[in-house]
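for the writeup, i need someone to sanity check this before i put it in the appendix. the sequnce is what the collaborator sent (i think, or maybe the updated version? ugh). structure was predicted straight from it, no edits. if anything looks off just tell me and ill rerun, i have time this weekend
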Amino acid sequence: QDALRSSGSDGMGQISLEFYQKKKSRWPFSDECIPWELWTIKVNVVNLANEQERQICREKVGEKLCEKIINIVEVMNRHEYLPKMPTQSEVDNVFDTSLKDVQPYLYKISYQITDSLGTSVTTTMRRLIKDTLAL
Protein backbone atom coordinates (compact mmCIF):
# COMPACT_ATOMS: atom_id res chain seq x y z
CA GLN A 1 0.00 0.00 0.00
CA ASP A 2 2.84 2.42 0.83
CA ALA A 3 4.53 1.55 -2.46
CA LEU A 4 1.34 2.51 -4.29
CA ARG A 5 1.05 5.83 -2.49
CA SER A 6 4.71 6.78 -2.89
CA SER A 7 4.70 6.24 -6.64
CA GLY A 8 2.52 9.34 -7.10
CA SER A 9 1.27 8.26 -10.53
CA ASP A 10 -1.29 5.98 -12.04
CA GLY A 11 -0.10 2.54 -12.93
CA MET A 12 -0.95 -1.09 -13.21
CA GLY A 13 -0.45 -3.98 -10.91
CA GLN A 14 -1.43 -7.49 -10.13
CA ILE A 15 -2.20 -9.59 -7.10
CA SER A 16 -1.36 -13.29 -7.32
CA LEU A 17 -2.60 -16.18 -5.22
CA GLU A 18 -0.51 -19.33 -5.63
CA PHE A 19 -1.32 -22.72 -4.13
CA TYR A 20 1.65 -25.06 -3.91
CA GLN A 21 2.96 -28.24 -2.38
CA LYS A 22 6.43 -28.98 -1.11
CA LYS A 23 8.68 -31.61 -2.58
CA LYS A 24 11.30 -32.84 -0.15
CA SER A 25 14.85 -32.48 -1.41
CA ARG A 26 17.97 -34.20 -0.25
CA TRP A 27 20.43 -32.40 1.93
CA PRO A 28 21.96 -29.75 1.38
CA PHE A 29 19.16 -28.47 -0.86
CA SER A 30 16.01 -26.86 0.50
CA ASP A 31 12.51 -28.16 -0.20
CA GLU A 32 11.11 -27.32 -3.63
CA CYS A 33 7.76 -25.49 -3.85
CA ILE A 34 5.71 -26.77 -6.78
CA PRO A 35 2.66 -24.65 -7.68
CA TRP A 36 -0.49 -26.57 -8.51
CA GLU A 37 -2.74 -23.54 -9.04
CA LEU A 38 -2.09 -19.85 -9.71
CA TRP A 39 -4.66 -17.06 -9.87
CA THR A 40 -3.75 -13.53 -10.93
CA ILE A 41 -5.97 -10.47 -10.66
CA LYS A 42 -4.83 -7.48 -12.72
CA VAL A 43 -5.62 -4.03 -11.34
CA ASN A 44 -5.30 -0.42 -12.47
CA VAL A 45 -3.81 1.83 -9.81
CA VAL A 46 -5.22 5.37 -9.83
CA ASN A 47 -4.74 8.48 -7.73
CA LEU A 48 -8.02 10.11 -6.76
CA ALA A 49 -8.48 13.79 -5.95
CA ASN A 50 -10.35 13.60 -2.65
CA GLU A 51 -11.66 11.33 0.09
CA GLN A 52 -15.18 11.15 -1.39
CA GLU A 53 -13.83 9.77 -4.68
CA ARG A 54 -11.63 7.32 -2.77
CA GLN A 55 -14.62 6.08 -0.76
CA ILE A 56 -16.75 5.51 -3.88
CA CYS A 57 -13.88 3.78 -5.66
CA ARG A 58 -13.09 1.67 -2.56
CA GLU A 59 -16.67 0.31 -2.53
CA LYS A 60 -16.62 -0.51 -6.25
CA VAL A 61 -13.21 -2.17 -6.01
CA GLY A 62 -14.31 -4.13 -2.93
CA GLU A 63 -17.38 -5.45 -4.76
CA LYS A 64 -15.35 -6.46 -7.83
CA LEU A 65 -12.67 -8.11 -5.70
CA CYS A 66 -15.33 -10.08 -3.80
CA GLU A 67 -16.79 -11.28 -7.11
CA LYS A 68 -13.36 -12.48 -8.24
CA ILE A 69 -12.64 -14.22 -4.93
CA ILE A 70 -16.03 -15.98 -5.00
CA ASN A 71 -15.27 -17.12 -8.56
CA ILE A 72 -11.89 -18.52 -7.45
CA VAL A 73 -13.48 -20.32 -4.48
CA GLU A 74 -16.21 -21.86 -6.68
CA VAL A 75 -13.65 -23.15 -9.17
CA MET A 76 -11.26 -24.37 -6.48
CA ASN A 77 -13.98 -26.33 -4.69
CA ARG A 78 -14.13 -28.72 -7.64
CA HIS A 79 -12.22 -31.87 -6.85
CA GLU A 80 -10.32 -31.98 -10.17
CA TYR A 81 -8.32 -28.90 -9.12
CA LEU A 82 -7.14 -30.21 -5.77
CA PRO A 83 -3.96 -32.23 -5.27
CA LYS A 84 -4.36 -35.82 -4.15
CA MET A 85 -4.81 -36.29 -0.44
CA PRO A 86 -1.41 -36.88 1.18
CA THR A 87 -0.50 -39.69 3.53
CA GLN A 88 -0.16 -38.80 7.21
CA SER A 89 3.62 -38.40 6.92
CA GLU A 90 3.26 -36.01 3.95
CA VAL A 91 0.54 -33.71 5.36
CA ASP A 92 3.04 -30.85 5.90
CA ASN A 93 3.87 -30.94 2.18
CA VAL A 94 0.33 -29.94 1.16
CA PHE A 95 -1.30 -28.24 4.17
CA ASP A 96 -0.24 -25.44 6.52
CA THR A 97 -0.26 -27.28 9.84
CA SER A 98 1.06 -24.34 11.86
CA LEU A 99 -2.48 -23.23 12.69
CA LYS A 100 -4.31 -24.99 15.49
CA ASP A 101 -7.95 -25.10 14.33
CA VAL A 102 -7.68 -25.11 10.55
CA GLN A 103 -5.18 -26.44 8.00
CA PRO A 104 -5.47 -24.55 4.69
CA TYR A 105 -3.57 -25.57 1.59
CA LEU A 106 -0.10 -24.03 1.39
CA TYR A 107 -0.34 -20.70 -0.42
CA LYS A 108 1.52 -17.49 -1.23
CA ILE A 109 0.02 -14.07 -1.92
CA SER A 110 2.18 -11.64 -3.86
CA TYR A 111 1.75 -8.37 -5.67
CA GLN A 112 3.55 -6.44 -8.35
CA ILE A 113 3.28 -2.78 -9.35
CA THR A 114 4.34 -1.38 -12.73
CA ASP A 115 4.38 2.13 -14.12
CA SER A 116 1.53 3.00 -16.50
CA LEU A 117 4.06 4.22 -19.06
CA GLY A 118 5.22 0.66 -19.55
CA THR A 119 8.48 -1.04 -18.81
CA SER A 120 11.62 -1.07 -20.87
CA VAL A 121 13.06 -4.23 -22.34
CA THR A 122 15.91 -4.03 -19.82
CA THR A 123 13.52 -3.84 -16.87
CA THR A 124 11.47 -6.72 -18.24
CA MET A 125 14.58 -8.88 -18.73
CA ARG A 126 15.82 -8.03 -15.22
CA ARG A 127 12.46 -9.01 -13.74
CA LEU A 128 12.38 -12.25 -15.79
CA ILE A 129 15.87 -13.24 -14.61
CA LYS A 130 15.12 -12.28 -11.01
CA ASP A 131 11.86 -14.27 -11.00
CA THR A 132 13.57 -17.27 -12.60
CA LEU A 133 16.37 -17.26 -10.03
CA ALA A 134 13.85 -16.88 -7.20
CA LEU A 135 12.34 -20.26 -8.09
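Strands lie at 11-23, 32-45, 107-115. The mean pLDDT is 80.
thx in advance!!
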